[in-house]
Amino acid sequence: MRRSFLVIAPTLLALACGPTAKPAPTPPGPPIGDPAPPSGERVPATEFTMTDRGTLALPGPIVFATGAAELDLAASEPALWHIHDYLVAKEAVTLVRIEGHGDQAGQDALILSGDRALTVGRWLVAHDVACERLLAAAFGDTKPIADGSTAEGRAANRRIEIVNAQLRGIAIGGMPADGGAPAVAPVCD
């Protein structure tokens, strides 16, 4: 009986005292998920996955001018910043191999794939990644991932891939840092 009184008493008290002011409505909380950044501010990536080939999964392609190593920044920046953020977050990865791949055979195509890898490395260095953590590797057409007889296959074979080469200064899987690339260039000048 006593317990019932305690439950009823606040209700009776409220009725006896008359109407009370309602509290101000609670403002809505922050939206669920990542907050939208203020205009023009970039939100660093915090989640990273590796592909079944052991490369860093990128949110989009790194695009170059046709037949050149000049970056199309508008198309490439999401992927470039993702690589940057990965390297900032994963300090234990002391060396990554920036692999340049192409869709054509020959020395010129091999050189172009290396120049493109080097361009990506230089972009990262310009954005405060230590050049000692980067190795540009030219693979040319030696590691296709798609059928080169179709336009879609050739486009897939033209790519930049990021591969972890050293963890805390030790080669991963006993592989050489260059991954057996036909040509390698250090990113440090």
Fold and architecture overview:
The protein is of the alpha+beta class and 189 residues long. It has a single domain, classed as 60s Ribosomal Protein L30, Chain: A (2-Layer Sandwich), CATH 3.30.1330. Helices cover 32% and strands 16% of the residues. It contains 4 helices and 5 strands. A 5-stranded mixed beta sheet has the order 4-3-1-2-5. A hairpin with a 2-residue loop joins strand 3 and strand 4. It starts with a helix and ends with a strand.
Structural class: alpha+beta
- Biggest β-sheet: count, sense, barrel? 5 strands, mixed
Question: Could you say which overall geometry the principal axes of the C-alpha atoms support?
Answer: globular
The CATH architecture term is: 2-Layer Sandwich
Poorly predicted runs are 1-36
State the distance separating the first and last CA atoms: 86 Å
Our count of helices gives: 4
- Broad CATH class: Alpha Beta
Q: DSSP strand (E) fraction?
A: 15-25%
CATH homologous superfamily annotation: OmpA-like domain
- The secondary-structure element order is HHEHEHEEE
User: Roughly how many Å is the radius of gyration?
Assistant: 27 Å
Strand ordering within the main sheet: 4-3-1-2-5
